[in-house]
Amino acid sequence: MPAARVEQLTDDAPPALAVDELRVREVLDRVPALVALVHGSDHRLAYVNDAYAAAFGARPVGVPAREALPELDALGLLPLLDQVLRSAKPRTVKSRKVPSGRSYTFTCTPVDIAPDGEGRGVLVFATDVTDHAEAAERLRASERRQRETASPCNAPCSPRSWSSPTTCASRRRTSPAARRPRSAATGTT
User: Fold this and answer.
1) How far apart are CA 109 and CA 119, in angstroms?
2) Considering only Cβ atoms within 10 Å of each terminal Cβ, which end of the chain, N or C, has fewer?
3) What's the chain's average pLDDT?
C-alpha cells in the first residue's frame, strides 16, 4: 500500500482500544478454540464460549463440572483440574479424541476469578488437532504396513536394515554383490 494511503487510513481510523478496555466475554465468545471456565473445589461451571457449546452442546452454569462437563470426566481431565488448582501451574493434555471423532489438545490454566484474589478457577482451553492426529495415525499405519511387507523372509528387520542389502538375511542372497560373478584367479568382480 502506498505510504500516502496508509497515512490517510490512520488519520480517519478510530483510536485502538487498550486491552484493559476490551470486554473479555465478547473476545472469548469469538475465539475459535473451545473455552470453559470453572471455579472452586468442585469446579462449578462459570462459562463456556460459543465454540465449546457448538462442539458439546449448551451447558448449565453453576453446576459442578462432573455434571455440567461430562466430556471432561470421560476424558479423565477432572483430576487434572484438581492438580492445576493445587499446584497453580498450567497443564496440557495432547490429542484426546472425543466421541464425535474430533481430537483436541486441552490446556488447563489456573486463574484468579475474583478481584480480591480469593476466588480461584481453571480456564480450560481446547484446540482442535483432528487434522494433525489423523495425519499422525496415517503415518503410523503406513510405517506398520512398510515393516510388514519390507522383509520377504519374515525375519525381523528394522527400517535401518532396509537400505543395507547385506543386513537382512533374505537380501544377502539377492544383493547385487552376491549376484556378480567372481573371477576365479583374483577373487574379485
Assistant:
1) 14
2) N
3) 78
For the entire predicted model, the pTM comes to 0.63
Please list the alpha-helical segments (H only) found in the chain. Answer: 3-12, 24-30, 50-56, 65-68, 70-74, 78-87, 130-150, 159-162, 169-174, 176-179
Residues whose CB is less than 8 angstroms from the CB of residue 13 and which lie 6 or more positions away in sequence, other chains included: none
Binned at pLDDT 50, 70 and 90, residue 180 comes out as low
C-alpha grid cell, residue 161: 536394515
Domains in the chain, CATH or no CATH each: 16-133 (3.30.450.20), 152-181 (no CATH)
Q: In the prediction, which pLDDT does 21 show?
A: 62
C-alpha–C-alpha distance, residues 75 and 115, integer Å: 32
Enumerate residues 6+ apart whose C-beta is below 8 A from 72: 36, 65, 78, 81, 124
C-alpha grid cell for residue 150? 519390507
pLDDT of residue 1: 47
Cell reading at 72: 471432561
**Nearest-angstrom CA–CA distance, 86 and 79:** 11
Cα(35)–Cα(49) distance, integer angstroms? 5
Kindly report the backbone phi and psi dihedral angles of residue 2, in degrees, each rounded to the nearest multiple of 5, phi listed first.
Answer: -60, 150
Q: Give the separation between CA 82 and CA 98, rounded to whole angstroms.
A: 21
